[in-house]
Specification:
The complex is a heterotrimer of chains A (456), B (265) and C (430). Chain A contains 15 helices and two strands. Chain A is mainly alpha-helical and 456 residues long. Chain A has two domains: 179 residues, no CATH class; 231 residues, Orthogonal Bundle (MetI-like fold), CATH 1.10.3720.10. With 265 residues, chain B is α/β, with parallel strands linked by helices. Chain B has a domain of 182 residues: Rossmann fold. In chain B, the strands form two sheets. A six-stranded mixed sheet of chain B has the order 6-7-8-3-9-10, sandwiched between helices. In chain B, 49% of the residues are buried. Chain C is mostly helical. Chain C has two domains: 122 residues, no CATH class; 218 residues, MetI-like (MetI-like fold), CATH 1.10.3720. Chain C is 62% helix and 4% strand. Chain C has a three-stranded antiparallel sheet with strand order 2-1-3. In chain C, helix 2 crosses helix 4, helix 8 runs parallel beside helix 11 and helix 15 runs antiparallel to helix 16. Classes of the chains: A mainly alpha (456), B alpha/beta (265), C mainly alpha (430). At the A-B interface, helix 11 and helix 12 of A face helix 3, helix 4 and helix 7 of B.
Chain lengths: 456, 265, 430
């Protein structure tokens, strides 16, 4: 159905292009002086249909489900929801029934609702096609009537295009607003249930709450400190390993490697940055964690199965090319004259790097390391797979710790009920993550920019 | 400012500090220097002049092996410092550069304090036994570069905060601090204003008392003012080499004459 | 100049003294040390990459082949009613086939012996019979996958010398399998199911079809949305936007958006698209929307760089012949910048293809046993499928996870190769 709607609006706009262009050319052939080329009359018709129709179709696709859900839920028999703790669970059950996934024997009113939902879907799809068709037809007529010798079609087209481009660049702003707004909105709901002070200063994180009244579970505690501490431990491990390795490889590539080695080594290093993080996560659980445990056992040191060292170490591998390329850029940005000055004094290459280039490049390198820290804090898949789930107040990297991102994902995987603090806690964590990384990013970008200006 | 007759008598007593024979330099496939033979005297200022791209800077950079840092550069022939071939396998370029100092076109002080800039060379080469020793070397070098009086109260301030002329003299002080025997200067005044230029030129004239100074310059007036010997380079060839007075008044080669009279360059 | 120093009180350094020689040697040793450390750092990084790839290839290679057993199946009319071939007792038919294959086996062993054949065998058989009901009453030959434990046995992952109680296969089970092998019934062909089947609880049946199609739909949606939006925004910002506070804000905004952790985009998708708009959970369409928002900054930045690389002389030349600003940009600048834009877009899409966390939050880790037929059906994507399999305890899923990763990396290599090709083929330097 969606395909049909798009096919319809595309063919209507193409038709408008051809009809209007031909009409304009016919005017010209009759000896009238056109203000704009025939092509622009055609383009005007095309845009006049394409833009509203695409917007309507996309909005329809995005919003129809919400409307259908509301309609379905409101038509449930009276009292059906009364004994259910959670209407959202009912809705998702009806949805999966509607998709033909039946588990057990559902109540007849649920089957009925599912059928109604499917009917509504079918109607909505047809209605969408009808609306698109009608809209296209009306706009085709409107644009056709505007074809006239004096019509400034080019200006009109350019105004539409300009408006479109401005809208496009506003999308980035809208996305940021969307992120901030949704995080803040859900977080406020969370803080209505859990006090802000308990969240920020509590030392227990036990978000497992009973979903239904008859479940036996702990009361739930939402103190973010242990989660935050875990994030710090893993980030520290990742940075402590990746920064020396990344810096050293940058120094080697920049100062000692010949051109051929550089040409081969740099892309190979970049490969490490292109590997999806889910792959690193698998590597951590499959290879690194067992190896660390085996070494620990050989040395008589107890190592937790999902030690922070495994997650942090693998994250470090991912960060090496990131730090290395930043340090490489920063070292290359130091003017050649400084390097020549040191060499001409009889400094060896290593003395040149360590005493002159490196201090001069420090701001650029610090900016890069900060961006790496922000990445490590926000990195999700490696820790979801390789770090622990239990929040502990510990700084021991051999122990198992959890992180902000791990908690976000585990809280939200599976069915989510938007009225439980368990779900909303994830948004509070997300808001914290967003603020911290945003702050680090702004700081880092500012340092890097200042540094570039210094030598430009 | 300088006395011609004195210079001429001095030259005759001095011996050759640097001698180059059949030097050729290639950048990749391009030949930048073609068969240069020259003997540079001790305690003399020698000027290299010529139109841009003539190879004078390239040749200068051969004397302290700065061209080693360029991957594609290849050098043939022989350059001897006090009779020793500096491209000999046994010669360590690091040590050579301590003996042959260099000052660059643009002042390039390190982003460190004035003191640390000057002390850098002595520190890495281990020329001072203690702090007092190092203080002495730094002071002597700054005095040698005629900068001491201007900066003695702010040695801890960054060298990049000085004016252009001061920065260039700081770089000269930095080069002088390792007690080199030869001082190479690659257009040391081209980035300076006239007043700073005259200060540096004055300094060069004094440096001649202790070092063999080689200066590359675009300005014939400057060559005439500061040097006793002049070498004219053209298209990678050393066209003419002789007393500065002779070169400027009685050039032997028609190309030299054309350059000096402003017809090429 | 009267401040000429009297520093000649100190003798010039004698470079040939032992003290200086020793010092120089120490300095050169330090230099060699730093050089060695640098090389060691690079080699360590390479080593890690090597171990990673070796782990994946050595572990994943096995999953590209699947052990099959060929059985002679007597399809009797008692088991399968010709009137309703779809409702036949195919499990029973397979059991009878096993009985016929091992006539001497005692009755209590039959259950274990039937376990050699994958659970899928009955469905393979059913499909054959439904297609051609005339086979009822005949004995037909089918080739079906063996179950995971036997697949592992065939691939040499079972230590037969270990204590019998510590492994899932008894000595008798292994003997039975070896007997089938001796009869030539066991084959190890290429595992087409990996690409023609969707997910399954049984590793020997699980494939990537659903995940590949899900990823393809998500990427398509991502491209269709982020490409025009990104180009539109980039052209406006680079060519038309007046230098005001407003365009500054947009610029800073885009740079920061590029560095927002991906999981935050997942939160956005969950809260806005799923919760407020009520869109379908687990749908590639929603996944594509979220990925599009993530890819948008990448495309904008790449497009602006490509536009910037077009020399102003081209704009001036076109303006000079009387073209309007938009005609210049769309007619001359944009076509010249296109290779750069496409390269950046492909790299952005490759990043999106490997992105996992936001897809998890919008439920694309659902267990779905059929490939999606539209972008609105529940589905997984390649990276989330990897995540699901990596979480599964069966031995067969470990190898399949590696295989799935190899498939994902294969797609990434292809996309990047395309980007490199485009760049080298069309990139112009002015």
């Amino acid at each position: 159905m969606t395909g049909l709607a798009f096919a319809l609006l595309l063919s209507a706009s193409l038709a408008a292009y051809m009809i209007n262009r031909r009409a304009a050319l016919a005017l010209r052939d009759r000896g009238e002086r056109l203000h704009s080329l025939g092509m622009f009359h055609g383009l005007y018709g095309l845009l006049l249909i394409l833009v509203p129709a695409v917007v309507v179709t996309i909005l329809w696709i995005m919003l129809q489900n919400g409307v259908i859900n509301t309609l379905t839920m409101s038509s449930l028999p009276d009292g059906a929801l009364a004994d259910m703790a959670n209407p959202q669970l009912v809705l998702s059950e009806i949805q999966s029934l509607a998709q033909g996934r039946v588990f057990g024997t559902p109540e007849p009113w649920k089957l009925e609702a599912a059928e109604r939902m499917n009917d509504l879907r079918a109607n909505s799809a047809w209605l969408m096609v009808a609306v698109v068709a009608a809209l296209s037809a009306i706009l085709l007529l409107v644009s056709r009537r505007q074809v006239a010798a004096a019509f400034r079609a080019r200006q009109a087209v350019e105004r539409i295009v300009m408006g479109l481009m401005i809208t496009c660049s506003l999308v980035a702003v809208i996305v940021t607003f969307g992120i901030v707004f949704s995080l803040v909105f859900e977080s406020i709901r969370f803080f209505q249930m859990v006090p802000l002070t308990e969240f920020l200063f509590g030392t227990r994180w036990e978000p497992q709450m009973p979903i239904r009244a008859d479940q036996i579970a702990a009361e739930g505690a939402f103190g973010v400190l242990p989660v935050f501490l875990g994030t710090l431990v893993i980030t520290f491990v990742a940075i402590a390993i990746s920064v020396p390795i990344g810096l050293m490889s940058a120094i080697y590539l920049n100062e000692f490697a010949d051109r051929r080695f550089r040409a081969v080594a740099k892309p190979i290093l970049e490969l490490l940055a292109g590997i999806p993080t889910v792959v690193y996560g698998f590597f951590a659980i499959l290879t690194v964690a067992p190896a660390l445990r085996a070494w620990g056992a050989a040395l008589g040191i107890p190592v937790a199965p999902n030690t922070a060292l495994a997650a942090g170490g693998v994250m470090a591998i991912m960060l090496i090319p990131f730090i290395s390329s930043f340090a490489d850029d920063a070292l290359s940005a130091v003017p050649r004259s400084l390097r020549d000055g040191a060499i001409a004094l009889g400094a060896t290459r290593s003395e040149t790097v360590l005493n002159v280039l490196f201090p001069a490049a420090i701001p650029g390198i610090v900016g890069g390391v900060l961006l790496a820290v922000s990445r490590a804090i926000g990195e999700t898949m490696i820790v979801v797979m390789a770090a622990g789930l239990i929040a502990k107040m510990t700084l021991n990297p051999l122990d198992s710790v959890t992180t902000v991102t791990v908690q976000i994902v585990t809280l939200l995987i599976g069915d989510t009920a938007f009225d439980s603090p368990k779900t909303l806690a994830a948004f509070a964590l997300g808001l914290m993550l967003f603020i911290v990384t945003l702050f680090i990013n702004i700081l880092a970008l500012r340092i890097v920019r200042k540094y570039r200006e210094q030598y430009d | 400012m300088y006395d011609t007759t004195r210079t001429e008598t001095a030259v005759s007593q001095q011996d050759i500090k640097i001698s180059a024979s059949n030097v050729q330099v290639f950048y990749g496939d391009k030949q930048a220097i073609k068969d240069v033979n020259v003997g540079i005297l001790d305690k003399t200022v020698t000027a290299f002049i010529g139109p841009s791209g003539c190879g004078k800077s390239t040749f200068l950079r051969c004397i302290n092996r700065m061209n080693d840092t360029i991957d594609s550069a290849r050098i043939q022939g022989e350059i001897r410092l006090d009779g020793q071939d500096i491209y000999d396998r046994r010669v360590d370029p690091v040590q050579l550069r301590a003996r042959v100092g260099m000052v660059f076109q643009k002042p390039n002080p390190f982003p460190k304090s004035i003191y640390d800039n000057v002390a850098y060379g002595p520190r890495i080469h281990g020329l001072a036994r203690n702090k007092a020793d190092l203080d002495g070397i730094v002071e002597a070098a700054l005095r040698g570069a005629a900068l001491w009086n201007e900066v003695k109260d702010r040695l801890a301030e960054p060298g990049t905060g000085l004016s252009g002329g001061q920065q260039q003299r700081l770089c000269i002080a930095r080069a002088v601090a390792t007690s080199p025997e030869v001082l190479l200067m690659d257009e040391p005044c081209s980035a300076l204003d006239p007043i700073a230029t005259s200060q540096v030129e004055e300094l060069i004239d004094q440096l001649r008392e202790r070092y063999s100074v080689v200066i590359v310059t675009h300005s014939m007036q400057q060559a005439a003012r500061v040097s006793q010997k002049t070498a004219f380079f053209h298209l990678g060839n050393l066209v003419e080499y002789g007393d500065t007075d002779d070169i400027f008044t009685r050039p032997q080669d028609s190309r030299t004459e054309a350059y000096i009279s402003g017809r090429i360059g | 100049m009267t401040d000429l120093p009297n520093q000649r009180s100190k003798p010039a350094p004698t470079w040939s003294s032992d003290e200086f020689k020793g010092r120089l040697a120490r300095r050169h040793r330090k230099e060699a040390g730093l050089k060695f450390l640098g090389l060691a750092a690079i080699m360590l990084a390479f080593l890690m990459l090597g171990i990673l790839l070796w782990t994946l290839i050595s572990g994943g290679a096995q999953a590209f082949r699947q052990t099959h057993v060929t059985l002679d199946v007597p399809v009797s009319a008692e088991m399968v009613d010709a009137a309703d071939p779809a409702g036949g007792n195919y499990r029973g038919v397979i059991a009878e086939a096993m009985q016929a294959t091992f006539p001497e086996a005692p009755q209590e062993r039959m259950r274990a012996l039937s376990g050699i054949v994958s659970n899928a065998a009955q469905f393979v058989l059913r499909d054959r019979i439904v297609e051609d009901p005339s086979l009822i009453g005949q004995t037909i030959q089918i080739r079906v996958p063996v179950s995971d434990v036997y697949d592992q046995l065939k691939k040499g992952n079972v230590d037969e010398l270990s204590d019998e109680s510590t492994r899932r296969l008894s000595d008798a089970d292994i003997a039975a399998f070896r007997q089938l092998e001796a009869e030539g019934r066991i084959t190890l062909p290429f595992n087409w199911a990996l690409f023609t089947q969707a997910d399954s609880r049984f590793p020997e049946l699980a494939g990537l079809k659903g995940a590949i199609i899900g990823s393809a739909y998500a990427l398509l949606v991502c491209f269709l949305i982020s490409f025009p939006l990104g180009i539109g925004a980039a052209i406006y910002l680079e060519e038309f936007a007046p230098k005001t506070r407003f365009s500054d804000i947009i610029e800073v905004n885009i740079n920061n958006l590029a560095a927002v952790p991906s999981v935050v985009f997942g939160l956005l998708g969950l809260a806005v698209f799923l919760n407020w708009f009520g869109m379908q959970r687990s749908a590639p369409f929603v996944g594509g929307l979220v990925l599009a928002l993530m890819t948008l900054p990448t495309i904008i930045i790449a497009t602006r760089a490509a536009l910037k690389a077009v020399p102003p002389s081209i704009r001036e030349a076109a303006l000079g012949v009387g073209a309007s600003k938009q005609q210049v940009v769309f007619g001359h600048v944009l076509p010249l910048a296109m290779p750069g834009i496409l390269t950046g877009t492909i790299i952005g899409l490759a990043q999106a293809l490997g992105e996992t966390a936001p897809l998890l939050l919008i439920g694309m880790n659902a267990f779905v046993t059929s490939a999606p037929s539209t972008p609105f059906d529940a589905s997984t994507a390649l990276p989330t499928q990897i995540f699901i399999w990596a979480d599964s305890p069966e031995r067969g899923f470990v190898a399949r996870t590696s295989a799935a990763i190899l498939v994902l990396l294969g797609f990434l290599v292809l996309m990047n190769a395309l980007a490199i090709y485009l760049r080298s083929k069309f990139e112009r330097r002015w």
